[in-house]
Structures are given as structure tokens and as C-alpha cells.
Amino acid sequence: MSANKLFRAGIGGVLIGAMLVIAQPLYAQPTLIDASPAPNAGLDSAPQEVVLTFSHPLEEDGNLIVVTDEADQQVDRQDTTLDEDRTVLSVSLPPLAEGRYQVVYMVSGTELSTGLSGQYEFSVMPPRPRLSILYPGNGEAFTEQPVAIELETAFFDLNTGENSIHLYVDGELDAELHTLEHTLGELPPGVHEIRAVLSVGNDDELPETATTTTIAIAQPDTEIEGRELAATAEPDAGLQLSTGQWIGVVSATVVLLGVGVVLGIKTRR
């Protein structure tokens, strides 16, 4: 082969290689560059959709996102949509219950590129309900009654008729509450355990929400109580006698005085 032909062949090879390099980005295989929810995400609330973003435009047809639950049942609304730039694929979701979910996607790249498929999982884990006894504090002692109880809840709706708080005193159910405040009945002196727990549905308690505090009721001080009773008592009106009784008393007094005088005279003689 002549030098001229070799030169032309070399130039042709370089041009073809350059064309391939230039054309490659146009037909490169798309890759997943972002996902919402993200793979292995643990969410406090259920997402409204799954959104996948790809590195290169996709074909208008042949793209699909399927979301399934732990029972392998499809839960998405089956409305996979591609945006105008053909790089963002999404599917909407109904309200999801707590649990793990799997996302499976299958997309078609543009001409001369291959398709792409993949899968990942995410979970919906709403915060657990919580219950706290704000007052009284653990170990607090009381000399006066009744004792008021103040509670606090988180991620729990007491306005729902089936939800309540079970309040126990010394192991016995004292009240089913639909408010965060309660006044205990009269308690005997001594140490008492106050326990509260959230309840849902048909009185199904949530043991993990149970909280306990201990209080002491002091023994009454009888001396102080006697003083207080005396201080508040009505003044003593003294001995109350009728007119006849007064006459009898005066007569008896006169007779006794007379007898005393007579005895005194006889003694002098």
C-alpha cells in the first residue's frame, strides 16, 4: 500500500474514532443518579410518590416503576410518568401503612443504548407513641390531698374516641382518661405507685408506653389537727340552765349556807 493510501486510511480511522467519541454521550446507557425515597431510607411518614432521576434521557415508552409491600402486592397507583426532559420518572402512591416496601424500575434508553432495571427498598416507620407523667415527680411526698396528676403524650391522638390513658394506683385501674389531667381520690397514708399506659381500640394497651411514678402520703399529725380544730371551733357558751334549774340551784345554795351557819354556831358553844 502506498504512503498516500496509508495516510488516508489513518485519517479515516481517526475520524471514525472521533465520531464514536462524540456520539457516545448521545447513546450512553442511562444510570440512576437520584431516588426519592432513597434506597434503604427509614421514613417517619409515608411518601406520596417515588421519583427516580436518570443520567440520560429515556425513551418515551417502555418505562415502569412498580412498588410492592411485604406481601409482594403492588401498592402504587400504576401511573408512571416521564417528565418533559425525559430524565425524571415518577409514580404516585396511596397512603402507605407502616412497613417495608420495594421499588422495582425498568427503563428504556434512547436509540442504540440498552435498557436499565434495578430495585431497592425503603421503610415507613412512624414515631412510636409516647407517654410521660409530668407531675407529681417520682418520690414526691404530700401532706395534703387530693393529689393532681398531669400527663403528656406524643404521637398519640386522645381526641379519637377509641384512644385513652389507663391510670393505675397500686396496681388497680383508677380511671380511663381522655384528658391529660386527673385528680386522684383520697389515698391512705403510705407509699403509692402511680402507673399510666396508652390504650387503643378495644382497651388494647401499649405496654411499651407504660410509665410509673411513686408518691408518699404523710401520716396525719393529730396534735396539729387538734389545734386546728380548736382554732376553728365555736366559742363555748358555758353552762346553760333553765329558769327552774336556776331557782333550784339558788335554793340549794341557800339551804347549804343555812346549814353551815347553824353548824358553826353549835361548834362555838
How would you characterize the overall build of this protein?
- Helix content is 22%, strand content 35%.
- It is α+β, with helices and mostly antiparallel strands.
- It is rod-shaped.
- Mean pLDDT is 84; it is low at 2-26.
Q: Nutshell version of this structure?
A:
By secondary structure, this protein is of the alpha+beta class.
Topology:
Blueprint: H1 3-23, E1 32-36, E2 42-43, E3 49-54, E4 64-68, E5 81-82, E6 88-92, E7 99-107, E8 116-124, E9 130-135, E10 140-142, E11 148-154, E12 164-169, E13 172-177, E14 181-183, E15 190-200, E16 204-205, E17 211-217, H2 222-232, H3 243-268
Parallel strand pairs: 2-8, 10-17
Antiparallel strand pairs: 1-3, 3-6, 4-7, 5-6, 7-8, 9-11, 11-14, 12-13, 12-15, 15-16, 15-17
**Residues in helix, %:** 10-25%
Low-pLDDT windows of residues:
2-26
Distance linking N and C termini: 188 Å
Q: Give the quaternary arrangement of the chains.
A: single chain
Total number of helices? 3
Stated plainly, the CATH topology of the largest domain is called: Immunoglobulin-like
Secondary-structure class:
alpha+beta
CATH class descriptor name of the largest domain: Mainly Beta
The chain-level mean pLDDT equals 84
Write the CATH architecture name of the largest domain: Sandwich
Radius of gyration: 46 Å
Find the count of extended strands (DSSP E, 2+ residues): 17
Strand content: 25-35%
Overall outline: rod-shaped
